[in-house]
Amino acid sequence: MAKSASARRRKRDTGGIIRPPIVPFTVPSAPPPPRMVTIYVKLVPRAWEYLDDTLTLPLSAPLLEVRQHIEARHGGSAVNIQLYSGEPTTSTLLPDHTRSLAESGVIHGEKHQTSVATVYYTFSSPPENAVLMCLPPPEISSRPWSARFHTRRGLEG
After folding, report:
1. If we measure between CA atoms, which residue out of 30, 28, 94, 27 comes closest to residue 66?
2. Which DSSP symbol is given to 93?
3. CA proximity to 35, closest of 155, 116, 124, 139
4. pLDDT 10s digits, 77-126
5. pLDDT at 148 over 80
6. Helical H runs in the chain?
7. Which one of 40, 94, 116, 144 is least enclosed by Cβ atoms within 10 Å?
8. Which residues contact 15 (CB under 8 A, 6 or more apart)?
């Protein structure tokens, strides 16, 4: 049986090798960005409203990130931080800070495609004899006292 002209041409054009059809490469789509939560962090008692804050975290973030934000905001002077999903009572206490924001039940609405949550917190200040209060500023403690004394009097050495 004689080969058709198009089959002979195809064989001649490819050098005798029949290649499979070219499949166009498609770039996989990027995963959707994580859902974000706007968290209103409020200190109790409400008389200290100037310490309220707002932060935005992914929905999968643990409550521990909120606690660390509060610690940083207070400069390390806040100890025994308790987080609450509503006005502080034993029923609204959030004891497990390893749970995500979605699992903890603090989300109470949605605003502009972002979930909204309010976390209330209380804390106690460190005891008076805590190391935090007793440390001198770093620039003073970096040199021994005798070196500071001699430098001030021009007695280098």
Report:
1. 94
2. B
3. 116
4. 788 889 998 888 888 888 888 888 888 878 777 666 678 888 999 888 77
5. no
6. 5-13, 63-73, 101-104, 131-134, 138-141, 145-152
7. 144
8. none
Give CA–CA dist 87/99, Å, rounded: 20
CA distances from 64 to 27, 58, 95, 129 (A): 37, 13, 11, 27
- The token duo for 126 is 């460190």
SS3 of 88, please? coil
pLDDT over 90, % of the chain: 11
C-alpha span between 104 and 97 (Å, rounded): 9
Q: What's the rounded Cα separation, in Å, for the pair 36 and 39?
A: 10
Any idea which residue has 């929905």 for tokens? Answer: 59
Distance of CA 16 to the CA centre of its chain: 60
